[in-house]
Amino acid sequence: MTKLLKTTAILIGLVFVQPGFAGVSQSAELDEVREIQYEWARLYYMDEFKNKNYRELQALARRANMVSHDNPQSAEALVWDAIVLSTLAEKKGGIGALSLVKEAKLKLEQAEAIDPTVLGGSVYASLGSLYSKVPGWPIGFGSDKKAERYFKKALAINPQGLDINYFFAEYLADNGQDRLALEYVEKALQAPQMMDRPLADKGRRQQALKLRQQLGDS
């Protein structure tokens, strides 16, 4: 499949937040991160991306950037900043989105330096998604080899995660490995429910069901 300059966001919670994240800390910083997380899910899964929604996403990106800027040692804030940027790049599309995904990659690398296991392996899953979706040299930094390496790092941290199994299945399907992709789709669908993130959990499972159907028809 031809690579497109888009991401699946993280993107990612991207993303990959497991049940119990909300109880990790009651700090104001994590409260802000949770608010960004919930707003991202509302925009990404519940609303169609018309002009108004895109403007809301731009505003959310500015807010996420402020939170990560004010909390430079928060890996969680950096990951969610990157996720929102990746989603904005997905919706913008084209070469104009390249600067956004480059910035998202930088923020994920900063988060990795602080805590590579943050949010159940979301740093590595998000990096894997970026490397798999962005075109390679000379246009972008995309690399299937690096993508697979990051996905496997994420799976080593969080083998039962809904998001990471879905993203790896999508990567395998994009690279013609349908049989193996189907195995990871099934793992995604059997993943524990993300009770603290019902919108994201429902949305991701719907994507996994759609991918399973596509793989079954291929």
How would you summarize what this structure contains?
About 11% of the residues have low confidence. It is built from 9 helices and no strands.
What is the top-level CATH class? Mainly Alpha
Give the fraction of residues assigned to helices.
55-70%
How much of the polypeptide forms β-strand, as a percent range?
under 5%
Radius of gyration, whole Å: 16 Å
Could you give the order of the helices and strands? HHHHHHHHH
Give the overall shape, derived from the CA principal axes: globular
Stretches where pLDDT is under 50 for at least 5 consecutive residues are 4-26
Note down, in words, how this protein is organized:
By secondary structure, the chain is mainly alpha-helical. The chain has one domain (21-217): Alpha Horseshoe (Serine Threonine Protein Phosphatase 5, Tetratricopeptide repeat). The protein has helices spanning 28-46, 51-70, 75-92, 98-114, 118-133, 144-157, 162-174, 178-189, 198-217. Residues 4-26 have low confidence and may be disordered.
Structural topology:
Layout: H1 28-46, H2 51-70, H3 75-92, H4 98-114, H5 118-133, H6 144-157, H7 162-174, H8 178-189, H9 198-217
Helix pairs in contact: 1-2, 1-3, 2-3, 3-4, 3-5, 4-5, 5-6, 5-7, 6-7, 7-8, 7-9, 8-9
Tags for this model:
218 residues
